[in-house]
Please model this.
Amino acid sequence: MIKKGSFVRIEKTILKASERTAKIPEDTKSTDFKMWTKGVLLENCEMNELAKIKTMANREDEGILVEVNPFYELNYGEFLPEMVEIDLGLKNER
Amino acid sequence: MKDSMSNYDKVMSRRQEILDKALGIDFDAYELEGIAFDYEKMMEECAYPLEEAIKVQTENGVGNTPLVELKNITSLARKYAPKGKGARIFVKDESCNVSGSFKERRASMSAYHAKKKGYKGLIAATSGNFGAAVAAQATKQGLNCIVVQECYDSKQVGQPEIIEKARKCEALGAEVIQTTVGPELFFESLSVLDETGYFNASLYTPFSIAGVETLGYEIARECQERFNKYPEAVICTNAGGGNLTGTARGLKKTGAKETRIIGASVNLNGLHMASDHDFNRKSFTTGHTGFGIPFATYPDRSDVLRSAARPLRYVDEYYLVEQGEVFYITEMLAQLEGYERGPAGNTSLAVAFKLAQTMNEDEIIVVNEMEYTGAGKHINPQLSFARKNGIEIKFGNPKKESINGKNIILPRSPKDIDIDAVDLNHLRNSYIKTMLNTYSRKASELSIVEKEYLVNELNIDMDKVEELLKNFE
Model:
């Protein structure tokens, strides 16, 4: 069980693929239109169950609880040999 | 209203009412006849004057950014230029604004206005630097903030640059609502505007665009003070048109009426902006033709009835570069000048590098902004992400070999950076076509007021307007 007061992420399907009427390419039209937001859990809840949260903009929202203590794993990518080649080339230009 | 009406239809049917309440501008007051409206009157009555914008921005950590000469890059451009050619290249380091980009000039004025009008918060629909700018200014000026961003494809793979923006917005106190690909993001944004009663911090309001005028003002004033002249050219990365419009207006208001106004975009031709498949096959989330061309030819496609960002009014020349060229110049900026910035804002630097080679050595070309960088956003994670998505990355001739969505071609040498000029008359024709369709007007029936509107709107004389209109008769 995830306790009330935890910081969580919720997911909602706003439009099912069949409900999408906007002028969009077929590949997009065949997918659900979804959204995610984060906030403090207002009531105890199980993972993948409907959860109620209060967001950082002081707004209440509901959605499926998909993550607890969400965090970022951004990085600077992997080694790219091309960048070394560019850097060495530019040093020779000076 | 029928019960069977979906929540989507209910909200969309109230679109205008929600937007009016969230902005408080009576656009009807500026309509003239048919396609025409009074742009200058709208700017004068709705936006804050330059002096007030300078004051508000100074109080909120925005503006007065360094204008720096890129001496090493200028030397390199001269190496590949004919004798006597190679203009001095300067850049405004807009990463010195609180949240790290020029977008804060827009956000600061939106927050100021919202606070004055009693709104409790701001909502911005953006995947770019504008979100961070609105978050920072909302926090500074004591308002709540919600940023709605298109972030993931249907497999929930996020563009690393956009995820970095989400992180930054949250770090600055905002709620971030992330969505999958699609224009229905607008629905989500309308829903939260309706629910919260917050202010619509649109990129395209008069407040927002007039906020960028200070950028043109600072460039003109500083060049006059330091070099006793205005710059010969100022170059702006162009997406929605606000950067170019605001900067050009600021330059002209300060007296730099002869300065060439140049637009620059990354060529993303061939990629569909609303395609789930294409979404993560582009390495630029802004500054590209996917926004630059449609917003130039139909500015009012935005979330306000009449956009204040109207680049065709000001642009003298417009050039495109390839993704690989912007990555290369971004690395050059770090390796030769010590600035780790961008990449999107460096689109205009790539163009400036080539254009400088056609200008005299005593001339000045100013790149009007560069932006912060970071994990996810930096060129290394962007190129890594592209490679993981099956995009081929190799050296070659970017102009000849680039196929968007398939490869990124890096130049081997600075001499391989080249630019493509956009035919402005082609854009003007496209603008006229869209306006005639939108307002159900025929070219042969346009009134003198509408034609005079086109003179200003398209930055051409009446003879040229008449000539272009002949294409539609």
Q: What stands out?
A: The interface with chain B takes residues 14-15, 19-20, 22-25, 27-28, 31-39, 55-59, 72, 74-78, 80, 82-83, 85-87, 89-91, 93-94 of chain A (CB under 8 Å).
